[in-house]
Amino acid sequence: MSEELNPQLEQLLDYIKENRGFDFTAYKRAGLGRRIEKRMQILHLPGYAEYTEYLKAHPDEFTLLFNVILINVTEFFRDAPAWEYLATEIIPRILAGKAAHEHIRVWSAGCASGEEAYSAAMLFAEALGKPALLDRVKVYATDVDDEALATARLGRYSQQAVESVPRPLLEKYFVRDNDLWDFDRDVRRVVIFGRHDLLEDPPISRIDLLLCRNTLMYFTNESQRRVLARLHFAVRDGGYLLLGRAEMLLTHGNLFTPVDLKRRFFARVPQIQYLDRIAVAQAGNGKDNSHNDNDGGMADGAFELGPDVQIVLDAKGTLVLANERARTMLRLGPRARAPHFRELDLPADVLGLVEQTFGNASATRLTDMRLAEVVWTSATGDPAFYKVTLRPIREPSGAVDGVSIVLQDITDQRKLQEQLERSRHELETVSEELQSSNEELETTNEELQSTVEELETTNEELQSTNEELETMNEELQSTNEELHTMNSELRERSDDLNSVNGFLGSVLSGIRDGLIVVNRGGQITAWNPAAEELWGLRAAEVQGKAFFGLDIGLPVDQLGAAVRRGLNGESGLVTVHAVNRRGKNVSCSVVVTPLKSSTGEIQGAVLLMQAKGA
Question: Which among 581, 531, 578 has a CA at the least distance from the CA of 557?
Fold first, then answer.
């Protein structure tokens, strides 16, 4: 299922590639666009073109953008059933296929902040023991995010990050340092971190276990095929591949085959290698005046032990040479004289060919089936088939000096050919019977083909949707972690605010004179218990109300000038006649001072009132 491309988004991706070397064109556009738009919303930018201009003006924005695009959602032993299967099934199989001191190579592709690579190292340490782990195992952990790799190399994790580590492994492979946990330094030595782009860089080779989880789902289908071909090259025969929950290989069965589909383990499909083996046997006889004794002995031995029946006749047709197999087949024993070829127990077809050779004085290679395959019944009565080759041995003048006869046993070939003919005949019979069925099935097959194509399209759409949902899930998880951090900060601020409010309440309660605080708009923001006792109104009744609109025994209109001076930064004392809540006339001294913030800004006025009986 292809994606419709947004020209402005493509221009933005080209700009990122040209200026920072990151090629995101292989990523799925839906998820990629959604993550870029997240940055655009924060910056209040309406479109990709405006964001491209913003990147040109603010180079630091690249770092923030990459942190959003390269989602680093991972954890120790993420998806526990897969890790349990790795520990109980896959690792024992890998170890069983290795010699005692043979090296083991593991690759965590897209390792983010390193939790996955360290998880694999712990499981191999449990299976082998720490000394053997340090001697035999290498865990290669790669990612394209340099910032995430820097975090991974430190091997320091928060309490929240190690919560998924089983308690025995946490106590064995981590050391606590205040609120952080440091990964074991010895085991850390087997993990090698490095930057690697799955689409551009050559793959690491001879890998026994490749962990590539929730990485392929960000790529387009074409990019996934390219990456899978590289992963297939990286994994050795007998090696394993672990993918994420949303990633499938239904259309790549020629590269990897499922080991446990539920837990997403796959085995590498070996590449078939063909080895051409050509065996050539050649024997020759004739007069030889140029070789030394050694060469002659070797030639005689080769002739004597040849697998085919070989005899040599002179110009008169008398037998002059016969190898061991010929002597056995022709039952040649000690004789006073050499036999003529007509006296030999040869098939009639062969004798006729010899006559023809002497008559024509030319080489004859039998190609006709009647002549090429002669039947020779052995002493046991079993028929044997032979291919006959006759070749004249000539003098330098061209005259025939003799004839070389070779009979090659093709009985097994003939039997196979007969079996093939029978099978072919049976096949023809079955084919005729199936022809009518095939014709009936053709229409059904066409309908099924159409249905299959529709199902394949639907399956690809569902797989793409599943990968997209998994991507969104990781984005939501990343956002949730950010919100969790913000919530913790807000909780701390709330605790601080409660502490300050408690402190302020204690201070206000401890002041024996009446105290009123108003803001710059004249609304009351504080009213202590002494003011309640003095004027008969509770703090809840006056909170947020206009001070100069109060109808109490205090003549607030006479305090207007003093309050305004206080709002202008001046302090003053005003004495007025008032009536307290008991109806008693009192002389009230009001000290007005400005209320300033930590930066010196005037935010209101403070009125401190002391009443004395008239």
Answer: 578
- The closest of 45, 40, 33 to 69, measured between CA atoms, is 33
Answer yes or no: is 479 within a domain.
no
How far CA 67 is from CA of 36, 59, 362, 478, in Å, comes to 10, 14, 87, 11
Same domain? For 42 and 94 the reply is no
Containing H/E element for 299?
Answer: helix 293-304
Quick: pLDDT tens for 588-606.
Answer: 999 999 998 888 899 999 9
Within a domain: 420: no
164 and 236 inside one domain = yes
Q: State which amino acid sits at residue 138.
A: K
Helical H segments across 110-220, by residue range = 115-128, 130-136, 146-154, 167-173, 185-188
**Both 113 and 33 in a single domain?**
no
**Do residue 195 and residue 65 come from a single domain?**
no
CATH number at residue 232: 3.40.50.150
Share of the chain above pLDDT 90, in %: 24
Spatial distance between the Cα atoms of 69 and 63, rounded to a whole number of angstroms:
10
Pairing of strands 207-212, 104-109: parallel
CA distances from 249 to 114, 255, 258, 374 (A): 25, 9, 8, 57
Q: What 3-state DSSP class applies to 19?
A: helix
Residue 226 CA, chain-centre distance (Å), reads 12
Cross-strand bridge partners of residue 385: 375
For the residues 167-173, what does the mean pLDDT come to? 94
Domain end among 16, 39, 69? 69
Count CB-CB contacts under 10 A for residue 339.
Answer: 15
Which of 545, 553, 552, 542 lies closest to 521 in space, CA to CA?
A: 545
Q: Are residues 49 and 120 in the same domain?
A: no
Structural domain count, the chain: 4
Backbone angles phi, psi at 229, to 5 degrees: -65, -40
Confidence (pTM): 0.51
Its domain, for residue 381, covers 302-407
User: Within this chain, do residues 35 and 84 fall inside the same structural domain, yes or no?
Assistant: no
Question: In this structure, what token pair is assigned to residue 113?
Answer: 């902040």
Instruction: Tell me the pLDDT tens digit for each residue of 11-54.
Output: 888 888 777 766 776 677 777 778 788 888 888 888 888 888 88
Maximum average pLDDT range among 80-84, 332-336, 457-461, 478-482: 80-84
Same domain (yes/no): 58, 86: no
CATH of the domain at 16: 1.10.155
The pLDDT of residue 189 is 93
The answer to whether the CB of 77 falls within 8 A of the CB of 119 is yes
The total number of residues shown for the chain amounts to: 614
Report the CATH number that the domain containing residue 368 is assigned in CATH. 3.30.450.20
The values of phi and psi at residue 145, to 5°, are -95, 105
Confidence of residue 373 (pLDDT cuts 50, 70, 90): low
Q: Confirm if 375 and 387 have CB atoms less than 8 A apart.
A: no
pLDDT band per the 50, 70, 90 thresholds, residue 367: very low
Query: For residue 276, is it within any domain?
Result: no
